[in-house]
Amino acid sequence: MERHRACGIKRGAWARKKPIKYDKRRYKHRNRIEIMFGRLKDWRRVATRFDRCPEVFFSAIALAATVVFWL
User: Fold this and answer.
1) Which residue from 39, 68, 63 is spatially nearest to 51, judged by alpha carbons?
2) Which residue in 6, 21, 46, 69 has its CB near the most CB atoms, within 10 A?
3) Exposed, middle or buried: residue 15 (CB in 10 Å: 0-12, 13-18, 19+)?
4) What is the pLDDT of residues 22-47, one digit of tens each?
């Protein structure tokens, strides 16, 4: 490996000696926001920015968010 200047494979989470610290509360909120954006992108009009006018685009996002919230 040294002759070819290759490096080894990095260890996965199961073989890590020190666990990575993170704030579970912030991670949970971040995950919820990512899920919300994923659901909004299911709406073709929002995902492709079909409306060029900012006011109409914002109203489409509000409508999609309202429908996603109630489903």
Assistant:
1) 63
2) 46
3) exposed
4) 788 888 888 888 888 888 888 887 77
